[in-house]
Structure formats: structure tokens, C-alpha cells
Amino acid sequence: MTSLNHTGVSHTIFHLLGIPSLEDQHMWISIPFFIAYVIALLGNSLLICIILTTRSLHEPMYLFLCMLAGADVVLSTCTVPQALAIFWFHAREISLGRCITQLFFIHSTFISESGILLTMAFDRYIAICYPLRYTTILTRALIGKIGVTISLRSYGTISPIIFLLKRLTFCQNNIIPHTYCEHIGLAKYACNDIRVNIWYGFSILMLTVVLDVVLIYVSYVLILCAIFRIPSRDARHKALNTCGSHVCIIVLFYGPGIFTILTQRFGRHIPPHTHILLANICMLAPPMLNPIIYGIKTKQIQEQMVHVLFTKQKS
């Protein structure tokens, strides 16, 4: 390794294996990947179109949902087409520049989704705890500022990773046992000291995603306290129902990620392909199921979907 470092050899091309030890099953694995991606793309695109074109849905809750759907499209598109190219065409080669670009958008979009979920929790808190001031607090100007802040936070925190990776010399193995690139997964093939990368990545995780989870938890404690102080049983049920979709999406978004981290930390005997499949589920499940959950549990979106899908067919 030392001799390689002195000669200045640095890999500029990497090879993604896909799902290691399951190469002969790639064609079968590609089927649920493709179906999930098509559902995610069509479902979220339809959701965005319905919200943007229906004036009655230009409310804070639906505008935040529109942001979430947009992030879902980006997140799934960053990962699934690459995986399908590996499964179908054995297109495993990826340049260093493309690899860094891919992980930049994956990580920044993941942080964006986390920020949007926190904002949606804040929206539910205002709607339930301060219903009379809801429209005066969550104005369109504030929603626009929140959207810009979420984007700046996600891109601003991930941008330094580009420079932290660019400074490295990749003189070790250039075969990545995964379907996509991610920060530490790429950095560990460098022959330099990557402690800065590790600590920066950990700091970003704690200051964004983990902080968001804590704030979401606090907001829902306050929401539940406010709900159970409502004297009317019907009003309590209605308030809980408005939070149901959001809670499902929170569990769906953070649940697989937490489970993946726990299996990586404690599941030393779990095969590598299981870790890769779990990582892909984290990227696939939320974009696919989010529009379905909101379509089933939100009456206004249900009505608009029926109108768009069936009225146009009749005409």
C-alpha cells in the first residue's frame, strides 16, 4: 500500500458489484426494483401535478407534501436506474466524478427529506395546537423560506464532502460491493487518513437527521398532549387521523435506516448482501409508499386522483 501511495497511483474508475454473492439472481431481483421505481415515479409525479394544479390543495400541508414527493423522485432516480443498469446490462463501471456526484445527491436529498418531515411535524403542531392562527403563521412566504432553508441546509452540509473526497488518493481496491456510491463506502478505499471524512460524516448525521428525529419526537409529544386535552371524542379522533399519514411516513423513512445501522453495528454474522438489500430498501420503500399512504388516508387527494384518472378517461 505504501509503495502505491508513493507512485501516486489513484483509481479514477470504480466497479459496482450490485448485490454481492447474488449475481446469478440479479435478473430476478431487478423485477421488484423496476416495479417499485415505476410506482414511485408515477405516484409522486401524479401527486405533484394534483397539488400544483388544484387550487384547493394550495395549503401548507399539501405544499410540504409536494416538496416530499419531489425529493422522493430525486432520491429514487439517483439510485434505482444505476442498480437496474448493473442487473440488466452489467454496466458496473462508474467514474470517480460520477460516483461523487451520485453520493452528493443521495446524501443531500436524504437530508432534505428529513428536513421536510420535520417541517410537516411543525405543520401538524401548529394545525392542532394553534388552529385559529394556522393560516397567519404558515403563510406562503414562510413556506417558501422554509423550502429554501431546507435546500441550503442539505446542499450546504454535503458540499464539503466533495472536497474531502477529491483530496484523497484511491490506491486500494476499486471494486465497490454495492449498487450505488456512498461517502464512507468510497472513502475507505483511499490510502490517506480518512478520519476527517468519518468525523465530518458523523457530525452531519448528528446535526441533521438525528436532530430532526429528536425535534419530531418533541413535536409529537406536544401534539399528543394537546389532542388528549380536547374534550370532544370526535375532535380527538379527527386530530389523530390528520397525523396518521405523517406518522406512517416517518416510520417508513427512519425505520429501515435505523434497522440498517443496527445490523451493521451488531449483526457481524449477517451476510453482506443482506446489508446491501436493506440499504436499497431505505432508498426504494419511502418513495414508492409515500404517495400510496397519502392517497389512501387523505380524502382530498383521493378525490382529485379519482377525478384525474377517471374523468379524463371518460372524456
From TrEMBL:
Alphabetized PANTHER family for the sequence = OLFACTORY RECEPTOR (PTHR26450:SF386), OLFACTORY RECEPTOR 56B1-RELATED (PTHR26450)
Arranged from A to Z, the UniProt key words for this protein are: Cell membrane, G-protein coupled receptor, Membrane, Olfaction, Receptor, Sensory transduction, Transducer, Transmembrane, Transmembrane helix
TM ranges are 27-50, 62-91, 103-122, 142-165, 198-227, 239-262, 274-296
Query: Which GO-annotated molecular functions does the record name?
Result: G protein-coupled receptor activity; olfactory receptor activity
Source superkingdom:
Eukaryota
Q: Quote the cellular component terms of the Gene Ontology held in the record.
A: plasma membrane
Q: What is its main location?
A: membrane
Keyword Hydrolase (UniProt): no
Topology relative to the lipid bilayer, per the entry, is: Multi-pass membrane protein
Name the record gives this protein: Olfactory receptor
Which purpose does this protein serve, as stated in its record? Odorant receptor.
Its localization reads: Cell membrane; Membrane
Limits of the G-protein coupled receptors family 1 profile domain: 43-294
Q: Which organism is it from?
A: Suricata suricatta (Meerkat)
Family, according to the entry, reads as follows: Belongs to the G-protein coupled receptor 1 family.
